[in-house]
Structures are given as C-alpha cells and as structure tokens.
Amino acid sequence: MGFGGYRQGYGGFPSMGFGGYRMGYGGYRQAIEITSFTLSASTVAYQGSRVPGYTTIELQTNVPTRGYLLIVGNGIQTKINLSTMAFKTIHKVDWVPWDDTKKAPLPAGIYQIKGYLTDQGYNQMQGYPLGALTVVTETSPKPLIDGVSPNPAVFSPKYGQTQTNSLQIQFNLNRPAEVQLTIRNINGDEIYTGSKETLSPGSHTVSWNGTDKTGRIVMDGSYEIVFKTIETAYNYPSTTPLIWRSGTITIKDADYYIPVSRLKEIVTDASFQAPSFTPDGDGINDKVTGQFTLAIPAKLSIYIANAAGAHAALVVSEQTFEAGTHTFVWDGSDIMGRKVPNGSYFIKLNVAEGPNSGYITFPSAVKVENMYEIKPMQPEKRVRVISETAKMSVDPAGQGYTAIKGDTFPLMSEAIENGKYTVLVKEGVTGTISVSDVELVTEPSSAAQTTDYIVVSGDTLWKISSKFNTTSAEIITLNNLDPNQYLYIGQKLIVPATAPQPEQPTQTTYVVVSGDTLWKIAQKFGVSAKAIVDANKLDPTAYLYVGQKLIIPGAAQPEQPTQTTYVVVSGDSLWKIAQKFGVTTQAIVDANKLNPSAYLYVGQKLIIPSVAQPEQPAQTTYVVVSGDSLWKIAQKFGVTTQAIVDTNKLDPTGYLYIGQTLIIPSKQ
C-alpha cells in the first residue's frame, strides 16, 4: 500500500496537496503530508504459521513528525506507537496483532489503519485513513524459535583453547525479538549466560565455548540450551523474558581440571624427606616433612592423599607461593583431627590458574607405622563389582571413589547397613558399596595359590609379573592396585604362586643413631652409599635424623648362633646337662637367664648354646590298661614309680585311667 502526496485539509478530508502549505494566523505553514506508507504483510495472524505472525509498518512524512497509528475494527481500537518523543520523517515498526487494552490477540477480521501525527510546528494530522489490515486465526501457532541445531552435538572444550574453539548453535527466529542464550546443568542451574541481542526474523547463530559464568570449563555431562526472549513487535513489549527450552548439548572429555601436562610445568617435583614416620605422640619421629618445587609462582592447596586417592589431610589451603622449593610438615592427623591408620600416603596438590584448577599426585609415598592397622574379616570373604561402575564412599569423611566392573574388595564384615557393605578399598582405607552393585565371591585359599612379595628398588609391575610367570593385570586384581599409582619400596604384594618364588634380595632395616652418616652406615654394612640412597629414595644432600629407618640392600644378615632345645628329665642338673652337651653351666644359665641357685624341674625346656645336639635319653610310651597301677608299671619297665611321676608330672595320690598315655623313662 502506498500514498503519493496527500495532506490534511481544513475540513479534515484528504485532498491532493500541490504546494504543501496551508494558511495560518501568522502566515503560511507547511502541512503534514504522508509521502509513503507500506505494510510488509496486509494479512497476519497471531503467532502465524500459514501467514506471517507480524507485519512491518513503514510510514514516511514530508516533515519530521511523531505520533501513533490507531487500528480500528470489530468494535476494538488499539494503538501502534510510531515515535512518542523524537520527530522523524521515516517511521518503521514491527507489530503483531495484539489488543493492548484486553491483553489478548486481535480477533479475526478487517481493521482500518488511521494516522495521528504532530510536527514540530504543532500541526496535527488526526485520524488520517491509511488503509486496511486483515487478521486471521492461526490453527497451528508457530513458536518464536525453532530449528535449533548445535554443532557439534558432542563438544570437548580444552584447556587453553576456549578463546579459539567454541560450539556453534544455529536457530531460526520467526518474529522480531531480543534473544539471550543461556546454558543450564542437569539440576536446572543456569551456569552460563550470553549477551542480549535484538534480532530480526531469520536464521542466526550463537556460540558457547564450554565455560561457566566464572570462565571455568564445565564438567562432562548433558547441558540444556535455553533461550530467554522478549518479542519486540508488541506495542508495549514485556519486561519479563519468555523461556524457550531448545535441546541439549553433550560435553565429553572436557578439561574440567587443568591437564596434568600443564600442572607438571607449574610443579616440577614433590616428595617426602623420609620414607616413614610414627605419629604416635612419643616425641620420636612424630612428624614428616614434605617439599615441592614450583617453576613459576602459583596458588595451591596441599593435601595428603591415602592409597585410594581420597584427601586424608589438608596441610595448606589456597596459599600463593613464589617460584622455588618450599617445605611443609604433616603430623599424621586427618581432616577430622584423628591420627591416620597404618598405610601409604602421598602428596596431592591442587593448583589454581585463573578460574581453573587441577590436582596432581606425586609417587613419593610415606609409610605411617606403629598406628592401628585396618584388616578385613577372617577368614577372608570378598565381593566383586557387577555394575559397569559403582559409586563408593571412602574414608575419611565419605569421599567419592569409583569402582569398575570386576573389581574385588575384602569384606570388613558380612553385616549390611543401609543397603551397603563395608569393604577394604585399599591399604588402610575402608569404604562402603551398595549391595546391588556387587556379588559375594568365594576366593580360593591364598595360602595354597598365592605368596607374598616385597617390592624392592627398580621393581615395576611388569618385572614382578615376569618373575612369577603371570600378568600385571593379575597382580593388580589380587592387590586392588591403582595401575596409575607407583609401587614403593617395602610394599607387600600378593602374587600367584604358580612358580617357585624368586629369592628376595637380601636387605636389612637399620635405625639411624646419633653420629651416623650415609658413609658410616654404608661402611658398617659393606654396601655403597648410593645403594642406600636408591633403596630409600633419599635426597643425598639432606640430613639423616635420629630414629630414621633405612633399608640396607644386600646387607649380610648376622649368623645366628647354633642352639638346641633340651627338655629336663628326672635326675638332671645343670652340671649333668652341661657335660652332655660339652658346654659350661654358665653358658646354659646365660642363654636361659636362669637363677643358678634355683632348681630345675622335669619337663623344663632349656636352650643349649651348643654346636651339636646330643642324643636324648631313650624313652617309651605306654597306654594304661585295666588293673594297672604306678607300682605295676614301674616293675614292668624296671624303673621307679618316682621316675614315672616326674617324667609325666603326675599327682602321685591321683588315679590312673584306662587309655592314659605315659612316658616311661629309660633306666638310669
């Protein structure tokens, strides 16, 4: 629909304007003329699908104006604001068939369009007819947004690439609107909010780089695409956005935690300065010192992890350190303030870089000794995981742990509490697992089919499995090992006894005393200082401390003196026994810590520090029959009744009983 030069005359009727002026009291003033009027669609429907759901109105005047249009029909009048403040020669607005008075869509029908304009000289155009508009009813309303398509549907945001790598979300907008992309997690929480954009109908694309509101990469999982919209084609647009839930995105293999490769660039090393300690409160070796080295300044928290990887203790919380080597001390307390059980513990650092953070655990372990030891029930019974994965709660404080199908765990007891078993997850670590995730299994006797092996310097799972003609997987299963964790010297492993156990390298445990040095200890045991350093993973520049336990590899064990156990018989004395074995009475007294003035008694066991065992006095076993007495038996064997009493420690006033077995000493 178009107009070519109409202006308002005195009588209020449209007339052709040639000169464009009308007489006023002060002279001539230019009249308002509509130079152009168009509708993008003359037939519309509310949320139209078969016909447009809106129309774009463009009106041009010869002079700057402001005002509104009035839609009239079916007993209804509703406004379309053009410009309420600024004076313009071109007015362009989008409009949906909506009744602002009744707050409802316009009913079907034909509506007249009338113009109400004012120019800067306060000339007015009142009710100028601009044409007609047809409104129809839509039986299949069209949504504001459709055709949403994320590309790719499975996205893997990577650390350090969020500025260059993003997910593209294409969608179709069917009516003019202000649009804002948001992302929600499975709990319905809005974890990302994009910028607001005012868009025209058509195809559009927005992007998301896989980060949350803080800029951190999100965890793996399913996320919902949600658009917040305000349709701008209403005369009075809503101030409350409408929500359009538009599908999901799968995040997989995302770098929620800073990759270990990056963490190793920040933290180059971490270790304990001693292989073990005993936090039993006796004032000796109650604490252990750890150290770590940073290549660059970093903010981090220092945890102590147990064998299951759970946080046993928090030593330092969110502290910034300069580049260099730093130390910390752990007293063996856990996050609940209790002393930890016996077991192996590791340094686990949480490093923060911007909004992101990540964990790195170092293989250097410290052994906690002389505390309480956690052991499974005996005889041992196990459960095997039958679910693909099973969520467990482990000590301390019920932290998360994931078991996989085929894992087996020893039961702490057969009791079921709240639908869960309590099991031994790792060395020194208990946890609970749902009964529905496991099955009871009968394990063959480990004594018959397995043997123990102690890890030594240089050992790997592959080396040990080769020694025992088995596989690394079998050793991992037997010991519930984490294949990503390192073995440590002194660790006890169960290995299949399918072949003779290889001879363990000879080693001795030595406790450091005042004045010791690595050189002195090496000389004492006839080994090299480097061998001691390697066996204990020592820092050769660090000091030893009194009470420190060291493993001495290849040290010769002192030869045990030859000794014999002798049972005292009637008539024995220290002198007689010494003569029999060719030793001195003092040697027997010293070996047994005897009082030389005290009597020996029949049946007493003595350690004889001799090199050769003499022949024991001959003796006979006799079974009592009906009618026997001590006197009769003594006469039968040619010995005294006292000798029988002394040898068998009998009460001479007591009765014998049929079937009683007696030792008959030889004739002296």
Largest sheet: 8 strands, mixed
Q: What gross morphology would you assign? A: elongated
How widely separated are the two ends? Answer: 145 Å
CATH class of the largest domain: Mainly Beta
The CATH architecture category of the largest domain equals Single Sheet
Question: Rg to the nearest angstrom?
Answer: 47 Å
Count of distinct structural domains: 8
Give the helix/strand class: mainly beta
Helix content: 10-25%
Strand content: 35-45%
CATH topology of the largest domain: S-adenosyl-L-methionine-dependent methyltransferases
* Total beta strand runs: 43
Low-confidence spans: pLDDT under 50, at least 5 residues? 1-28, 556-561, 611-616
Mean pLDDT across every amino acid position: 86
Oligomer: single chain
Give me the number of helical elements: 10
SSE order and pairing:
Elements lengths: L5 E3 L5 E3 L4 E4 L2 E4 L2 E7 L3 E3 L9 E19 L2 E20 L2 E2 L4 E2 L3 E11 L4 E13 L8 E7 L2 E2 L11 E7 L3 E8 L5 E10 L2 E7 L12 E11 L10 E10 L8 H7 E6 L3 E2 L10 E7 L3 E8 L5 E11 L2 E7 L12 E11 L2 E13 L13 E4 L3 E6 L4 E6 L3 E3 L9 E7 L2 E6 L3 E4 L4 H4 E5 L6 H7 L4 H8 L12 E5 L10 E5 L6 H8 L3 H8 L12 E5 L10 E4 L6 H8 L3 H8 L12 E4 L10 E5 L6 H8 L3 H8 L12 E5 L3
